Amino acid sequence: MRKSLATVSLSGPLSEKLTALATAGFDGVEIFENDLLGSPLSPEEVRLRCADLGLSIDLYQPFRDFEAVPADTLARNLRRAERKFAVMERLGADLLLVCSSVAPESVDDDALAAGQLRLLADRAAAHGIRIAYEALAWGRHVSTYDHAWRIVEQADHPALGTCLDSFHILSRGSDPKGIADIPGEKIFFLQLADAPLMTLDVLQWSRHHRCFPGQGGFDVAALVAAAVRAGYRGPLSLEVFNDVFRQAGAASTAVDALRSLLLLEESAGLSAPPAAAVPSGFAFAELSAADTEPLRGVLEALGFAHTGRHTGKPVELWEQGEARILLNTGVSGRRQGPALTALGVETPDPDRAAQRAEKVLAPVVPRRRDPLDAPLNAVAAPDGTEVFFCRTEQPDHPSWTGDFADVTSRARLRERTESPGAVRRIDHIALTQPWHQFDEAVLFHRGVLGLEADDSLDLADPYGLVRSRAVASPDGGVRIILNVAPAPDAEDARLQHVALATDDIISAVRRVRQRGVGLLPIPANYYEDLDARCELEPARLATLSELGILYDRDERGEFLHCYTATVGRVFFELVQRTGGYRGYGAQNAAVRLAAQHLHRHGA
Amino acid sequence: MRKSLATVSLSGPLSEKLTALATAGFDGVEIFENDLLGSPLSPEEVRLRCADLGLSIDLYQPFRDFEAVPADTLARNLRRAERKFAVMERLGADLLLVCSSVAPESVDDDALAAGQLRLLADRAAAHGIRIAYEALAWGRHVSTYDHAWRIVEQADHPALGTCLDSFHILSRGSDPKGIADIPGEKIFFLQLADAPLMTLDVLQWSRHHRCFPGQGGFDVAALVAAAVRAGYRGPLSLEVFNDVFRQAGAASTAVDALRSLLLLEESAGLSAPPAAAVPSGFAFAELSAADTEPLRGVLEALGFAHTGRHTGKPVELWEQGEARILLNTGVSGRRQGPALTALGVETPDPDRAAQRAEKVLAPVVPRRRDPLDAPLNAVAAPDGTEVFFCRTEQPDHPSWTGDFADVTSRARLRERTESPGAVRRIDHIALTQPWHQFDEAVLFHRGVLGLEADDSLDLADPYGLVRSRAVASPDGGVRIILNVAPAPDAEDARLQHVALATDDIISAVRRVRQRGVGLLPIPANYYEDLDARCELEPARLATLSELGILYDRDERGEFLHCYTATVGRVFFELVQRTGGYRGYGAQNAAVRLAAQHLHRHGA
Predict the structure, then answer these.
(1) Residue A332 has what pLDDT?
(2) Phi, psi dihedral angles at B28 (to 5 degrees)
(3) CA of A444 to nearest chain B CA: how many angstroms apart?
(4) I need a labelling partner for A449 at 20 to 30 A (CA). Which of A226, B196, B308, B456 fits?
(5) A44 → chain B, closest CA residue
(6) Are B535 and A76 within 8 A, CB to CB?
(7) Following DSSP, what letter does each residue of B359-407 receive, concatenated?
(8) How far apart are CA B281 and CA B427, in angstroms?
(9) DSSP conformational letter for B273
């Protein structure tokens, strides 16, 4: 279906919004009136700009407080409408959104509303314009879509139809099944927005917290499917009032928006891009740095061995069990301090994964590849992290590891792997996101990789709340934690970490300490509280306290974890899960974050 | 009364919080458990630190999910409590907050709850500790203060009392009158927080939006008065979970907090600082700059005359009607581009105004004053703007204008003042605040100057929402608009403007244009919409459009306004109010803000 976006959903002046949404690939646009009023472009110039960009103007909106009013107000409202028809003719727009009145002087009289809307439609038709009447969730007398439709039906004018808005419908808990009762040709427009489920005054909820479909808690797909079943053939159009999008860059927000519509079409059964090739684990994490020496020290202490050297690039492979870390001193590493710049995921079908990624607007990363290198598809996540689709050492596919020449005997590696406390695999990766791309990042990882999102958590950092949401494959093979730091400019606003799984964290920590690498000190007060809360066996508690290991449990099992110091933007976590524990130790986050601040700044 | 603050209300590590609240002048502290758990300080060290700082530890909190549970859970909960008693003994804290249970296994049985709390109190008493039981607004079975009190009464143990929390009481709409029924000596503690009135899930409301008393919509003073009438003699203690305070500097938040308590005591009739000397108008606005040439050009075009030169400092006085602008090239001006650094307010009693300001923690600005200068009291507002208390050319007080030597004949000034379109006075001043000091700034201007606050508005800027709230004297003589820009680091995050009142804005604008100073261009689209909305007489509309004057009206009158270009951080607005219009043209803010962005960056 055609795809549109209301200008209010993007930041900046009108001309930049139009460019951004055309560049992203939208077909059309809803002109939000305030954007036109604040623009130095005349309606004719906007029309021309849209034509140049290949955008149709699908809707002009909103026209407020029209219907069910006394005669003198009606006369003024019709005059007001005529002025807007004139603007629309200059714009080349032929559909006007009229939202249900909130005016105190409007009366609760459907027949009056219908009669006045019929009059308006008649005036509009004279200009070749149609009217789409929509129920605002907070409309004074008309606040549900079925009520708005009854009035439209009663008015019975060919230039009058209804506009369905998923926010107004779903925020009130209305059942979209009733959409089936509306003839498709009378659904003149379909506006889409999602929102997180929250108990908040609906007007505030609407004005500040709307988000793109798939980023909130509404079943927007079911609503779209119902409208299409009813016969709706107009565009899918996003209208999102969101405090964050208002501040974010228009270009990236527009891509995020279009991706959400593409995924929505798939969810609603209206399209079938290549299915997600859900990854089964991490193939590698790539750390880039001009000087890898500090990272090498930490990796050695953690038991990693330098096992390979890329045959064509300044990249080292370090391994332990199935955990693989690449150290890259190439171009990207020279631009910044140690940072996690890429991750590889094990996927059952790298080609399909890449095809899907491209279909849902994941930017493909151009590779400078030697003719002999294994093919490797990668896309960039919203935060710039490159995601590679890998099949590591499987017979059915060339392996990226083939590009590395061995530098350590595998026997020596095996010996390390089998020692107690060895790292088995990457348990999870945590990436702090730019503050304005958090919801986009969650949807990206769900839509592109086929991961599932946990609930969003607020973690108490000494300097504010960290918003945190995990996305993971159903079996937990790939787990990525997306965070947003409270202060976008603070040094911790770009932290990343790699959590390494072991079956014996006690031995692992003892070995790390023997090798002279300190772990994050945890206050004694934490262990006294842990004793009060969890009644651990005293000797075990003493060991955890001695080694600075944090502890959590859920109804399935236990979680033990500890942290290295931070090198550049990166630190490592050692974790041991037992019995199917599902979380990431959120219970301990406040203590860990406080300890990290103190460790960085000196206690 | 003694004043305390819960550590959770401030940002940073525990040791910095303690220093901040002692420095601000608090008497005591509530130790929020997570702050201790994340601290490397032992309880003994915290005790010592508090003693050194002169702080008593008034409460240790919270102890959760204790009461009305099965026997085995009770045993575990008592063990947990004993661990906490041990920590409290080391801290030297003798009061523990127990909040009503949210645990699924707790049962709705007051007698059981009372019996178990009695048991807890008995255990506590053995350590010299008392228990303050509080109803959480979202408690599973106990969620109102009167219910919590009935259970405490039933338990009937000398070491068990109740804790009243204004948020939990007022967020549920409970009537604090019932506090009179609680014997004062059984109110063991009083926790205070305000919050903006909003329809939001009470847990989210509590965790993110609490604020200091006077900054929200609750009548906290009435609750305090009721508790004191009932006989409560403990501290007034603030416990505020607020997303902004978590990020703001602890030192300034602590001062803001203590000021709110001082004003609360006054509101509750518990103290009587010198009454506010409500200002009647602006004496001056002071602009500082290394190079005042661009400002002089704008002032001349606006019709101001350079009338005086300070006898001892590099400060010029510019006048028109009762509007006075100081141009300062002294120390503060050299540190930054043109900026509004001070304002003078006309006050009936400068000495009382200064005394009150000092009593409510407005930092007094040290003056380097010549022996011959008129005495001038000034305090610093939270954003650093200096506020001077003035009596300009009144017989009962030395006038600050006496420090200026005339440089223009008053006759020439009078001639300008009587010409059509002359500026009469400063209508209002708008100051963009640091994002984390918005609520503090509103309370400061209310509490220190005796101004009244309008509702908070969200204005749509092309790059986000501007939060805006006006504070004004009842007669409108002093009006200050406090704004917060959407992006704290953007160039518009520190804008300030001076709005100048005229009786004839048409003539004023024509003169400014004749003098070759351009005003902010307003898009033609705005005037077409204005015609549609307001049906102005065509000739008048044409004039407004020609001159770039914005228009608004309310039920009392009209408002016409326009803007100069921005010089440094400062711009000027010309305004004409007729018939008692009360606002500031918020209707036009989106168009104006869009025009300003375009004007700064080129259309």
Answers:
(1) 60
(2) -150, 180
(3) 24
(4) A226
(5) B525
(6) yes
(7) HTTPPBPP----TTSPP-EEEE-TTS-EEEEE-TT-TTS--GGGGEEE-
(8) 9
(9) P
Task: Report the alpha-carbon distance of residue B135 to residue B62 in Å, rounded.
Answer: 12
Q: Which of A106, A185, A113, A97 is nearest to A154 (CA)?
A: A113
**Closest CA–CA distance from residue A442 to any residue of chain B (Å):** 22
Q: Residue B425: beta bridge partners? A: B501
Structure tokens that stand for B249 in this block: 């500097």
Q: Are the C-beta atoms of residues B74 and B105 closer than 8 Å to each other?
A: no
List the structure tokens of B95: 């009061």
- The 3-state DSSP class for residue B94 equals coil
Give φ, ψ of B361 to 5 degrees.
65, 30
Mutant choice from B39, B47, B87, B91 vs A, greatest count of A C-beta within 10 A: B39
3-state SS assignment for residue A202: helix
**Residue A204 corresponds to which tokens in the numbers above?**
């505030």
Contact A422, A508 (CB under 8 A): yes
Q: Which helix (H) or strand (E) holds A96?
A: strand A95-99
> Where does the pLDDT of residue A337 fall: very low under 50, low under 70, confident under 90, or very high at 90 and above?
confident
Dihedrals phi, psi of A412, to nearest 5 degrees: -65, -40
For residue A8, the chain B residue with the least C-alpha distance is: B462
The number of helix segments (H) and strand segments (E) in chain B equals: 19, 24
Q: How far is B199 from chain A (nearest CA, A)?
A: 5
Give the sign of the dihedral formed by CA A437, CA A443, CA A449, CA A454.
Answer: positive
Report chain B residues whose CB lies below 8 A from the CB of A521.
40
Closest residue in chain B to residue A245, using alpha carbons only: B464
Q: Residue A559 has which token pair?
A: 């979680």
The pLDDT tens digits for B185-234 are 999 999 999 999 999 999 999 999 999 999 999 999 999 999 999 999 99
Quick one: closest CA in B to A242, which residue? B464
Q: In angstroms, rounded to a whole number, what is the distance separating the alpha carbons of residues A432 and A571?
A: 12
Q: Note the pLDDT tens digit of each residue in A411-447.
A: 666 666 678 999 999 999 999 998 889 999 999 999 9
ipTM: 0.92
Report which of A284, A340, A235, A339 is spatially closest to residue A5, judged by C-alpha positions: A235
Taking alpha carbons only, the member of B260, B598, B201, B257 closest to residue B446 is B260
In this structure, of A538-542, B75-79, B434-438, the range with the lowest mean pLDDT score is B434-438
CA–CA distance, A446 with A441 (Å, rounded to integer) = 9
Q: Which residue type does A145 have?
A: Y
The predicted model scores a pTM of 0.94
The whole-angstrom distance between B346's CA and the closest CA on chain A is 38
